[in-house]
Write a structure and sequence with these properties.
Blueprint (H helix, E strand, L loop, with lengths): L1 H26 L4 H23 L9 H28 L1 H8 L2 H13 L5 H17 L8 H26 L5 H20 L8 H25 L5 H8 L2 H13 L5 H21 L9
Helix pairs in contact: 1-4, 1-9, 1-10, 1-11, 2-3, 2-8, 2-9, 3-4, 3-7, 3-8, 4-7, 4-11, 5-6, 5-7, 6-12, 10-12
Length: 292
């Protein structure tokens, strides 16, 4: 029972940390490129220390094929983070998070496109719920509206995360999760360095602090806690708890930034979260950590 409670606590803390990703993205006074680079760099350092303390070799078993896979997935992770942080800067935390939360629908669509599978009833329901949810969340159907533009960037973030999730699920062996995440973050830092390094001098002390928290707590530690939660919970249960990420993000944004969601947005959010929960339950496994 103690192990179960520990796993349950770890899963909820993970969901909160994932939800706080958008909050720190809003607090840091920097471009999406700078935030993405800083997050990846701090996460990479934290994961290197964690691997050293745990005696996990980051170079063991590396070959050209694995490095190529890590590079491609790191490229997708960079695209996911950049679009997500742009969505936050343009449309706010709630809109960006809900746009990103559309990723299960994209995973279903990509599975159908790649493997030519006809959608089952549950998958059709998932697509319908996400579509209706996004329609309700959309502030206006005009591109002149900042909230709508932010939502579109959030949806782009969901698409890139779906591509990342499919790559991780089908192209990595899953035996050394720390190694996978380390090299993905290293790739992100390498790719984003030319776009960010000259702007780092403009960051203030508080921005550096928030970047460190974002990289260490919301990325490296949250990944470790998610893995820990799976030791006492099955993947389906853990995944459904992680699905609460948008709820935590909206609640925190409401409290900190007074981004009070309308009843229409809350209804859309409920449909999207329901779709994520049904997706995790129907597939028999939870979503991968939404590094949001």
């Amino acid at each position: 029972m103690t192990a179960y409670r520990t796993a349950l606590t770890s899963a909820h803390v993970t969901a909160i940390l994932f939800g706080l990703t958008g909050i720190f993205g809003a607090l840091i006074h920097a471009s999406a490129s700078v935030i993405t680079f800083g997050r990846a760099a701090f996460a990479m350092l934290a994961l290197a220390v964690f691997a050293l303390l745990q005696g996990r070799a980051l170079l063991r078993g590396l070959n050209r094929k694995k490095l190529f896979i890590y590079f491609v997935s790191g490229l997708m992770l960079a695209a996911h983070w950049v679009t997500f942080f742009i969505a936050i800067k343009v449309g706010g935390v709630a809109v960006a998070t809900l746009g990103f939360a559309s990723f299960p629908a994209f995973i279903t669509l990509l599975d159908m496109a790649v493997f030519r599978d006809r959608p089952h009833l549950a998958e059709s329901l998932l697509l319908l719920l996400v579509t209706l949810g996004l329609v309700l969340v959309t502030p206006s159907f005009e591109l002149a509206n900042q909230g709508t533009v932010g939502l579109l960037w959030g949806i782009a973030s969901g698409l890139s995360f779906a591509l990342l999730a499919m790559t991780n699920r089908r192209a990595t062996d899953g035996r050394n999760g720390v190694q996978v995440v380390f090299w993905q973050n290293a790739t992100v830092a390498l790719i984003m360095a030319p776009f960010a390094v000259f702007d780092l001098v403009e960051l203030g002390p508080m921005d550096w602090t928030n970047l460190a928290i974002l990289g260490v707590l919301c990325t490296a530690v949250s990944q470790a806690l998610f893995v820990k939660s799976l030791k006492g919970l099955n993947a389906r249960s853990a995944g459904m708890i992680i699905s609460l990420e948008p709820v935590y993000a909206i609640a925190c944004a409401w409290w900190l930034f007074h981004e009070a969601p309308s009843y229409r947005m809350l209804a859309g959010a409920a449909l999207i979260v329901l779709a994520i929960v049904l997706s995790a339950q129907g597939k028999g496994h939870g979503p991968q950590p939404a590094t949001g």
